[in-house]
Design a protein that fits this description.
Elements lengths: L1 E3 L4 H12 L5 E4 L13 E4 L5 H10 L5 E3 L6 H6 L1 H21 L4 E7 L22 H20 L2 E7 L1 E3 L17 H9 L6 E4 L11 E2 L1 E3 H16 L5 E5 L5 E2 H12 L5 E4 L14 H7 L8 H14 L8
Helix pairs in contact: 1-7, 2-4, 4-5, 6-8, 6-10, 8-10
Bound molecules: uridine-5'-diphosphate-4-deoxy-4-fluoro-alpha-D-galactose (UFG).
Length: 327
């Protein structure tokens, strides 16, 4: 099995779970955002998706039969200021991957998609058939690639499962791998860096949303639960299921203030916050229905409550306050 982006936050957890489940894994990552130390299993290839020759050689040399494709740029803000890079990396380089797969006779792919394909939802919980109107370029690139996969299925018989993640959070129970972005933009790492004294305060982006406490509500899902879903999806494809699309969330929403108060409980002290204006493009509420993947693939989250998710993230951040940099 080939995992692109296997050195990233979600990818490294996918690699770990695949290895535990006994799969042979080849990790393909250009390390532009990922970390070599995060790859705890499998064979590592330092390569770029645009390098068709190396991709082809990797697929042939390792007898790849399924691809799990996570390599992508993921910052919403950056996608708005630099759309060229997002379309290049998330769409054009993804096409190179698909064309190389077809050349090598590989016809199964699990694709890392996002709740960002929906944009501002009309109703929650969000089901897979809800309207898709992304509010940022990142979400557009994920939606375009989903469309490409559907076209490749119709034309060339490529079978895919797209997984639309809600808010990935937490870290592997070992405390050895976790979230380390530069710059960090995600709420839970920022809250925990504030708890460690690395930031003076957390800025709460918007306190006037139409929610129970005025702050945005999100559906936080443990990264290891996400990872297990990739194994179920890859195995289902190997068993010949038709192409499909699934949401992945915990089906419960937590506001920014609730995340802070759960984190205070986990770390055992107050975390300073400041109220700030809204961040452009943030929907008020995003909560998944994950009913479809539960029903079709038998997926069940192990970490259903936010406190366990934040506690696992704290284990990583408190042991590795500077992320992978300090080892
Ligand atoms: N937030 C703050 N302060 C911060 C950081 C975040 O108040 O310093 C708030 C945000 O405004 C948002 C919530 O915390 O309401 C969660 O923000 P994150 O940046 O952690 O996550 P997002 O919901 O913005 O983003 C996630 C994924 C993206 C995906 C998006 C889909 O991380 O990859 O959902 O909308 F595109």
């Amino acid at each position: 099995m080939l995992v692109t982006g296997g050195a990233g936050y979600i990818g490294s957890h996918v690699v770990k779970e695949l290895t535990i489940a006994g799969h042979d894994v080849v990790v393909y990552d250009n390390l532009s955002k990922g970390h070599r130390e995060a790859v705890r299993g499998g064979t590592f290839i330092h390569g770029d998706l645009a390098d068709k020759g190396l991709l082809r050689e990797t697929m042939r040399a390792h007898g790849v039969d399924v691809v799990v494709h996570l390599a992508a740029d993921t910052s919403v803000a950056e996608s708005m200021s630099n759309p060229a890079v997002y379309y290049q990396n998330n769409v054009v380089n993804g096409l190179t991957l698909l064309d190389t797969m077809l050349e090598c006779g590989v016809k199964r792919i699990v694709f890392s998609s996002s709740a960002a394909v929906y944009g501002e939802p009309e109703k929650v919980p969000i089901t897979e058939d809800a309207s898709k109107r992304p509010t940022n370029v990142y979400g557009e690139t994920k939606l375009v690639f989903e469309g490409i996969l559907a076209a490749y299925d119709r034309a060339y018989g490529l079978k895919y499962i797209s997984l639309r993640y809600f808010n990935a959070a937490g870290a592997d129970e070992s405390g050895e791998i976790g979230e380390d972005h530069n710059p960090e933009t995600q709420l839970i790492p920022i809250v925990l860096q504030t708890a460690l004294g690395q930031r003076p305060y957390l800025e709460i982006y918007g306190t006037d949303y139409p929610t129970r406490d005025g702050t945005c509500i999100r559906d936080y899902i443990h990264v290891s639960d996400l990872a297990v879903a990739h194994i179920l999806a890859a195995e289902a494809l190997m068993n010949g299921v038709p192409s499909n699309v699934y949401n992945l969330g915990n089906e419960s929403g937590h506001s920014v203030r609730e995340v802070v108060s759960v984190a205070e409980k986990v770390v055992g002290h107050k975390i300073p916050v400041r109220e700030a204006g809204r961040r452009p493009g943030d929907p008020a509420v995003l909560v998944a229905s994950s009913e479809k993947i539960r029903r079709d693939l038998g997926w069940r989250p192990r970490y259903a409550n936010l406190e366990d998710i934040v506690a696992s993230a704290w284990k990583w951040h408190s042991r590795h306050p500077r992320g992978y940099e300090a080892g």
